[in-house]
Specification:
With 194 residues, this protein is α+β, with helices and mostly antiparallel strands. The chain is built from eight helices and four strands.
């Protein structure tokens, strides 16, 4: 049971190839160096994500494999994520500025930070990198590990690197990797469609 390097989604309507081809792998090459050019382009794409009033309420913690920062994020991951994420070349924590310095709430910040993370993953895929976004981590632990101001909230952690060899991972990870790619139909997603 070996996953293929492409898991193109079967979509109901045409979409850009980069959307149909991107998936969240759990198999990273633990020895591959990070392609710094492709990674830099992914960060640049995140920088150009849209935001309310151009507030750009996102920040990122970049932690490359083999560094103390990478280990700090690994220590904050929950359960199954700890089994596979350490092989990624880098872990990127996306952080939202949920309040201005004067304390005024920025209720759109989490949404805008999500867009920045999405732009990051799409550009990373287009540049030949694999990614996997995670919500299974201890937010307070990441915030404390990097002395993040309480005005900011850690939203997600993205593993990024080179797609690995299925033979190098456990059967449990291979099974998850080979699970069918499915999405709820659009008709079940729309609350209204007038």
């Amino acid at each position: 049971m070996t996953p293929v390097s492409s898991r193109t989604a079967i979509t109901d309507r045409p979409v850009l190839d980069v959307f149909a081809e991107r998936w969240s792998t759990r198999i990273f090459d633990a020895s591959a160096p990070l392609d710094e050019d492709a990674f830099g382009s992914a960060l640049e794409a995140a920088r150009w994500a849209p935001s309310a009033s151009n507030t750009q309420p996102w920040r990122a913690v970049v932690a490359r494999r083999g560094t103390a920062e990478h280990q700090r994020i690994m220590d904050a991951l929950m359960g199954f994520n700890q089994e596979w994420a350490g092989s990624a070349s880098a872990l990127v924590a996306f952080v939202a500025e949920i309040a201005r310095e004067d304390g005024e709430p920025m209720p759109w910040a989490v949404y805008d930070t999500g867009q920045a993370a999405a732009y990051f993953t799409i550009q990373a895929h287009a540049g030949g990198l694999a990614t996997h976004q995670m919500g299974g981590f201890h937010r307070d632990q990441v915030a404390a590990a990097f002395d993040i101001d309480p005005r900011f909230e850690v939203i997600s952690v993205v593993a990024v690197g080179v797609l690995g060899d299925p033979a190098d991972v456990s059967e449990k990870i291979r099974e998850r990797e080979n699970a069918p790619r499915t999405r709820r139909p659009i008709a079940e997603t729309l609350i209204a469609d007038a």
